[in-house]
Amino acid sequence: MTPEKGDGVTLAGNSGTEAERTPKARTGRFVTGRGPAYVVILGRFTTNIGFFMVVPFLAVHLTKDEGLSSFQTGLLFAVMEFTRRGLGIPSGWVSDRFGAARILTLGLAVEAGAYVVFTVAGGSFIAWGAAVALLGVGGSLNNNGARSVLASSKSGGVAADLSRYYVSINGAALIGPLIGTALMAGGAMKAGFLIAAALHLAFAVTSAVLLRGLHATNAAPIKAAAMAEALHDRPLMIFCSLAVGGWFLITQYRVGLPLTVVHQKLSSDLVGPLTAGNAVVVMLTVWLLGSRIEKRSTIGRLDMFIASGVLLGGGWLLCSVDGISPIVAAVVVTSIGESLFCGVVDAVVAGLATEGRTGLYLGYSTMAWGVGGMLGGFVGGGFDLAAGHGALPLFWLVLALVGIGYGAGTREVRRSLAGAVERRRTPESAPAGTPSPADTPTPSG
């Protein structure tokens, strides 16, 4: 991976005439320094306040206020989840093809439009279906564009910026629901939709102005076939497969944790504070780790990735013990594990990206997120079945084995993965965009 990747670079086999026709990236102290990172991270924080202000309450609004059935509501959320996570790869491709900053702006504008449609959809299932699909597509474009801008920075600090990006999401997840609760109590959800639309539109305009020309189109735009070609990049596929385990375990905050509270006959009111505690611990840990992650080698980052598996898996195992204290301990331990995982996962994928394909490779990382979340929800849905058969210890043991498993798997291939990252930092190591056969991970201690 070269410092210039994705910024108007000339890929192998292209003429100088083609390169001359390529728009040049904008220069200046702001765009070549820390400016774009600050814009993206702060913008993500503000727009996610809008997202978390309305989306967690959307199911209640749809069934109570708009008269949709719970089945219809479930389908709408499935559409939103698929478009938001399942389209990560094509979103990454268009980010590389047309420029990350442009796709970020486009995604924000699409999301703003979706929130406006929310206000007029009424009881129409079709209208809501189109609106949530727009929200998901816009979110996919926005998310990939933002991460690609951070990962393509020329000023350094890529790993730290990607981890702080995650901090901004957790911060918004704390503030947004508080505003949403007030809106629900006042019967003003439509006002919330308009506020969310305004926040996204404001950031779209800001990004269009401040990030204008940040990433010029590649001299030889990558073809759509590149989306499938990346499947043959074994280091990427192996690492993303391992990352599925981490997202699987993180999903249990939405499934396993609340069900555990209910099963142990504790107050359901505890779910809110426990979830908030998770967000606070993650924010503090990732913020403290940010600069340290940046200073670590790829081997060091992979060691943190391994440790995340032990902490996530082992932390959930604590829930096999009854009582609020073990649950609180589980939240603290798994939150630290989540911090280690999210602090390095995108940085490693960005390091594996071949020239001009940062967005595409981050798209595969998003797909790992989606697959892990889907599997986590499916397995977590078996909680009641396990509880009914007195097999909850087995349920938690399965989660622990998932964490240990992806940690052990990473341990086996970490030196090969680190070697692949190092080779891809040297443009002479292989033709741009072509993984070297030597990049195939092999077991390593």
Tell me the fraction of residues in β-strands, as a range: under 5%
Summed over residues and divided by their number, the pLDDT gives a mean of 82
Low-confidence stretches: 1-23, 428-440
Helix content: over 70%
N- and C-termini, Cα separation: 25 Å
Walk me through the topology.
Layout: H1 16-21, H2 29-32, H3 35-54, H4 58-65, H5 70-86, H6 88-98, H7 100-120, H8 125-151, H9 158-185, H10 189-210, H11 226-229, H12 234-250, H13 256-263, H14 271-295, H15 298-317, H16 324-352, H17 358-380, H18 383-388, H19 392-424
Helix pairs in contact: 3-8, 3-9, 3-10, 5-8, 5-17, 6-7, 6-8, 6-17, 7-8, 7-10, 8-17, 9-14, 9-16, 12-15, 12-16, 12-17, 12-19, 14-16, 15-16, 15-19, 16-17
Q: Can you walk through the features of this model?
A:
The protein has 445 residues and is mostly helical. The protein is 74% helix and 0% strand. It has 19 helices and no strands. Helix 9 runs antiparallel to helix 14. The chain starts with 15 loop residues before the first helix and ends in a 21-residue tail after the last helix.
Give the gist of this structure:
The chain is mostly helical and 445 residues long. It is built from 19 helices and no strands. Helices cover 74% and strands 0% of the residues.
Name the features.
disordered N terminus; 74% helix; mainly alpha; 445 residues; globular
